[in-house]
Structures are given as C-alpha cells and as structure tokens.
Amino acid sequence: MSVDREQNQKRLERWMKETNIKLTQVNGQRKYGGPPEVWDGPHPGAHCEVFISQIPRDVYEDQLIPLFGFVGPLWEFRLMMNYSGENRGFAYAKYGSPALAATAIRLLHGHMLEPGVSLKVQLSIEKRHLCLGGLPSSTRREELMQRHAPVPINASGYTAHDV
After folding, report:
1. Residue 21 and residue 163: Cα distance in Å, rounded?
2. Which neighbouring-strand residues pair with 91?
C-alpha cells in the first residue's frame, strides 16, 4: 500500500471512530446509511438521489459525507470502490426529499475539492429503466407508451436494441 493510501486509510478510520459513522462494503461500493441509525422521516421516494462524479481518487467519505450532509440529512451515501481499495471517482447521495437533492445539485455542482478539480453533481436516474426484449426494430416509443399506458411508468428515455 502506498504512503498516501495508508494515510488516507488512517484518516478515514480516525474520522469513523470520532463520528461513530459505520460504513459497510458490499458489491464494489462502500455504503453509509440506508437508513442511517438516526432517521425519523419516511423512506425517500423518486428524485431524492444525486449522482456525484469527478471525485479525486484520494478523496473518501471523511470529506464527502460532511460536505453532502451540510445540505441536509443523508439517508444514504454510496462511494463506488475498486478492488484495490481506491474509489472509482463517483458516488451517490440520497436525501429525504427531492427538494434537498435539488439543493445539493445547486450548491455542490462545480464545488472545488482540490485546485482544478470540480465535482459534477446531477440528479440520479436511480435505475428507473424498463427493458423490453424481442421487439421488432420498427417498434416506436409512442406505440409502447400507448399499449402500456395503464402501467405507471416514468420513462425518461427509450432506446431500441436488436436482440
């Protein structure tokens, strides 16, 4: 392990001990919350999660959770990790309301963590995709929406793929 990575790891462990924050690593991501230990509101609905990119590889939760928590209480924070223990440069922060997510975007998009390194913060699509296979390539989005109108779908995009 490099000296910088050892220092980052020690700093993160010290911060976790001081704040009593618990992180769990699952499937290539390190996660806080979902819900956090102290949460008195309802579960977040749609449009409550932001996608954060352009995170420097040597920045971890000890800097990111306080920054995004400044906007409001975090329901969940997930930092994507590779197998060497380095972050992959992106994360997700979930708030209790769409208004807090919008505030995070407004306040933190373009935030400079290091000289010349600005975060990109945008609304997450939260895996709201519907995949339909075996359709003729001539199928149009309008046909699908008409046929499935009784099904509550918030479709933001449509891509036809040959199967």
Report:
1. 46
2. 52, 79
- Tokens 């956090």 sit on residue: 36
CB atoms within 10 A of CB 150: 6
CB 163 within 8 A of CB 133: yes
Helix (H) or strand (E) holding 61: helix 61-69
Give dist(CA 60, CA 11) in Å, integer. 9
Q: Which residues contact 112 (CB under 8 A, 6 or more apart)?
A: 118, 119
Which residue has better confidence, 149 or 96?
96
Residues 5, 8, 10, 12, CA torsion sign = negative
Q: Which of 49, 33, 30 is nearest to 96 (CA)?
A: 49
pLDDT digit string, tens, across residues 152-163: 545 445 455 443
Helix axes 61-69, 98-108, angle to 10 degrees: 120
